[in-house]
Write a structure and sequence with these properties.
The structure holds 3 protein chains of 3 kinds. By secondary structure, chain A is mainly alpha-helical. Chain A has one domain: MetI-like (MetI-like fold). Chain A is flat and about 70 Å long. By secondary structure, chain B is an alpha/beta fold. Chain B is built from 9 helices and 10 strands. In chain B, the strands form 2 sheets. Chain B has a 6-stranded mixed β-sheet, sandwiched between helices. In chain B, strands 2-1-4-5 form a 4-stranded antiparallel β-sheet, with helices on one face. The radius of gyration of chain B is 18 Å and the shape is globular. Chain B starts with a strand and ends with a helix. Chain C has a domain of 155 residues: MetI-like fold, CATH 1.10.3720.10. Classes of the chains: A mainly alpha, B alpha/beta, C mainly alpha. At the A-C interface, α2, α3, α8, α9 and α10 of A face α3 and α8 of C.
Chain lengths: 245, 242, 226
């Protein structure tokens, strides 16, 4: 029983008739991009704050930041997603919860997915920020303080500019991960790339074409992110600087 | 200018400094030496509060360093410090390294800061390097920039924490020359260093430390001619045989 | 505000435990197969035979570029048909567990191979030279000298990857397998107590993974001081 390849399937109208299958795929692709990028921006902001707090001398703040990271790192992404989507609206004050449940279902899925991916990733970003700061020579902090900088100024002008440069390569892989992790959101019905791929399998008899197309789409995202981040890395490189050790 | 009274410090049960007492008067150059692990770097970092201490008192220019009410940043902006590993900020050009604290801490305008910075670079012989990054300079050049950076703040005194021990031997002298010149101009200095030639040339007094205690605190003549403690004699014998 | 009712959990414990056993079974078999296949991939990647190193690089990069959920879905939707055809299994036989394990193992091998490759490269080149100088073949040098040292350095990373893999097993949810998370979801759905069961699942995962990562860190510190 040979498999009938049919790449023309993408140009056929869908079962519901309002679009082509290629249109479906493109919708999923856009959803994956929008979700991942918005979550990434939040993750960077939250992760930077938490990561910095993990390195400050104040034990209470550092402890809270550590607890944050441990919670988000030790619960599976899928479980976190279900907690945000199914559990959170029930635990909110009733009005707020009901308001959430009455919004457009696609918006509900998107918001839950975005918050989930953002916080899940922020814990990982925080770890990179922390290790970036800690990998700087300890004398740098002293040098900043010795010149009369406050601790905040020392972070702002001395530690963070170097730490940010050091963590561009590890952040690249977190950035790639957020696109891949966004596929988990198909489980709550969000029609992103992987979900559209599955729809195609269900609606057409061409599973291989569908999976190859989705794989190519993810590969494209990977390549674009990698080149983008390499460009960033080159932009921020410090002349003459040979790594911290 | 700097006065220390019975300063003690411990990490857990490990005693790093025990009852250290000494004075540094205006215009004096104090050389602190001693075997590694004797606490000399810790002592000098206590002066500007980079290392906290548990008991005793340090007064710098009338301000108590250990007092929790003291504005440490303000105090530190008046005390220059030079580190063993230079600690220039690698992401900034040389000139920006000299300007950043002038602008952000002292509130000088960028032009004022650049003018001051250029003058000081000129003085340490590195004017042409202003637009380079620290990683593009040799160790000796970086340390001279670090001294200029500290001077840009118009400090009332300077602390040197082993400024030449991370340098290749051929670069030691260019840094010592700058320090000697500074001493001859009357800068108050406290230097942790093993460079006994430098001590002989410019020191007013020599402090010898061992196991967290100040064992000798004497004029350089007395220290070099007849050190009282056995440890100091051994130390000098070893150093001079280099 | 939600009114909590935890009463459906005690009765469901045996069912949840069965689910946990499936999660652990998938984790363990995927770790073992993943490390074996990952080691082979790493050796191919480092080999001087360009076909092998090219194949390994393509394999690793491909699997690292796509989401695990997609791979699992692919295995869930397509592999059973393939197996039926290849081995003449009666249609509808339950190969979900086997295909989930296969999917995980093939996917994780890509990640393991990168860890192992870095581990092999962290062994000083002189070790290989010294082994060859003693007259060992390439295979002997790898097996007796380089790999044992590499694995010792890598143990903490391999274990950490195992913890990540354990968390990822929850994704077999897409193939409707009743692993621990799937079981918790089913019970919650049946009793209308999804909130409680999901919170319970979250806490259980947290305790297991937190404890395991603490153990790994402890072990890592011991290794460092030894």
């Amino acid at each position: 029983m040979a498999y009938n390849w049919n790449w023309g399937v993408f140009l056929q109208p869908t079962a519901t008739g309002d679009d082509t299958y290629l249109g479906w795929m493109f919708y999923g692709f856009k959803m994956t991009i929008a979700l991942s990028l918005s979550a990434w921006l939040i993750a960077l902001a939250v992760g930077a704050v938490v990561g910095i707090l993990r390195t400050v001398p104040n034990k209470l703040l550092a402890g809270i930041a550590t607890a944050y990271v441990e919670v988000f790192r030790n619960i599976p992404l899928l479980v976190q997603l279900f907690l945000w989507y199914f559990v959170m609206p029930e635990l909110l004050p009733e009005q707020l919860g009901n308001a959430f449940k009455q919004t457009n279902p696609i918006l509900q899925q998107f918001l839950a997915s975005m918050v989930c991916l953002a916080l899940f990733t922020s814990a990982r970003v925080a770890e990179q920020v922390r290790s970036g700061i800690n990998s700087l020579p300890p004398g740098q902090k002293n040098a900043g303080l010795a010149m009369g900088f406050t601790l905040a100024q020392t972070y702002r002008h001395v530690l963070l500019p170097m730490a940010v440069r050091l963590i561009v390569p590890p952040l690249t892989s977190e950035f790639l991960n957020i696109f891949k992790n966004s596929a988990v959101c198909s489980t709550i019905g969000l029609l992103e790339l992987a979900a559209q791929g599955r729809q195609l399998v269900d609606y057409t008899a061409q599973p291989y074409e569908s999976f190859i197309a989705v794989t190519l789409a993810y590969l494209t995202i990977n390549v674009v992110v990698m080149f983008g981040m390499r460009w960033v890395e080159a932009r921020v490189r410090v002349p003459g600087y040979i790594g911290a050790k | 200018m700097i006065s220390m009274n019975k300063v003690s410090k411990h990490f857990g049960t490990f005693q790093v400094l025990t009852d250290c007492t000494t004075q540094v008067h205006k215009g004096e150059v104090i050389v602190v030496c001693g075997p590694s692990g004797s606490g000399k770097s810790t002592l000098i970092k206590c002066v500007n509060g980079l290392e906290p201490f548990q008991s005793g008192e340090i007064i710098v220019n009338g301000v108590s360093v250990g007092d929790p009410k003291t504005n440490l940043s303000k105090l530190r902006s008046t005390v220059g410090m030079v580190f063993q590993n230079f600690e220039l900020f690698p992401h900034m050009k040389i000139i920006d390294n000299l300007c950043i604290a002038q602008v952000k801490v002292l509130g000088r305008s960028l032009e004022q800061a650049r003018e001051k910075g250029s003058k000081l670079l000129e003085r340490v012989g590195l004017r042409e390097q202003a637009e380079k990054f620290p990683g593009q300079l040799s160790g000796g050049q970086q340390q001279r920039v670090a001294i200029a950076r500290a001077l840009a703040m118009d400090p009332i005194c300077m602390l040197f924490d082993e400024p030449t021990s991370a340098l290749d031997p051929e670069m030691v002298n260019e840094v010592l020359d700058v320090m000697t010149e500074l001493a001859q101009e009357g800068m108050t200095m406290m230097c942790v260093t093993h460079e006994m030639g430098f001590a002989r040339r410019v020191a007013s007094r020599v402090i010898f430390m061992d196991q967290g205690r100040i064992v000798e605190d004497d004029s350089k003549e007395a220290f070099f001619q007849n050190p009282r403690s056995e440890r100091a004699q051994q130390f000098l014998a070893k150093i001079l045989h280099h | 505000m939600h009114e909590f009712d935890w009463s459906s959990i005690p009765n469901a414990l045996p069912f949840l435990w069965d689910g946990m056993k499936i999660s652990l079974e998938i984790t363990l078999s995927a770790v073992v197969f993943g490390i074996v296949w990952g080691t082979l991939l790493a050796l191919m990647r480092l080999s001087s035979v360009s076909v092998l190193s090219w194949f390994a690089a393509a394999y690793v990069n491909l699997f690292r570029a796509v989401p695990l959920v997609m791979v699992l879905l692919w295995f869930f939707l397509i592999v059973p048909h393939l197996l039926e055809r290849l081995f003449g299994l009666p249609p509808g036989s339950d190969v979900r567990l086997a295909s989930a394990i296969a999917g995980f193992a093939l996917f994780e091998a890509a990640y393991y191979s990168e860890i192992i490759r870095a581990g092999i490269q962290s062994v000083p080149k002189g070790q290989m030279a010294a082994a060859s100088a003693l007259g060992m073949t390439y295979g002997q040098s790898m097996r007796l000298v380089v790999l044992p040292q590499a694995f010792r350095n890598m143990v903490p990373l391999l274990l950490t990857q195992g913890i990540i893999l354990f968390q990822d097993t929850s994704l077999v949810y897409v193939s409707a397998l009743a692993d621990f998370f799937g079981a918790a979801y089913k019970v919650g759905d049946r009793d209308g107590r999804l909130v409680e069961l999901l919170l319970f699942a979250g806490v259980v995962y947290f305790i297991i993974c937190f404890a395991a990562s603490r153990l790994v860190r402890h072990f890592q510190n011991r290794l460092k001081t030894a």
